[in-house]
Design a protein that fits this description.
The mean pLDDT is about 80. The termini are far apart. The protein is elongated. With about 80 residues, the chain is mostly helical. It has 2 helices and no strands. Helix 1 packs antiparallel against helix 2.
């Protein structure tokens, strides 16, 4: 019955404070950075038989996305 207690909840943009989300984002960033340029390119080339330049471009794009996500996590101090 204290009148000074506040029960307001602040809106959350992208909650990177939970442990689960931090771990998930780090795993996704690692997958995009390392497995994207290697295994995805391999699957595109040998299994799906997509053009070499298209598969290399997709691998490079996945690498860039992984690096941007890693940069985002470092800037938000989710990982140190």
């Amino acid at each position: 019955m204290a009148e000074n207690e506040k029960t307001d909840v602040a809106p959350q943009k992208m909650d990177t404070e939970s442990r689960f989300r931090k771990i998930l984002l780090v795993i996704v960033a690692a997958f995009l950075t390392f497995a994207g340029p290697t295994y995805v390119v391999y699957v595109f080339l040998n299994i799906l038989e997509i053009n070499y330049f298209i598969s290399m471009g997709c691998g490079f794009a996945l690498f860039i996305i992984g690096m941007v996500l890693l940069w985002y996590l470092i800037r938000r101090k989710s990982i140190t």
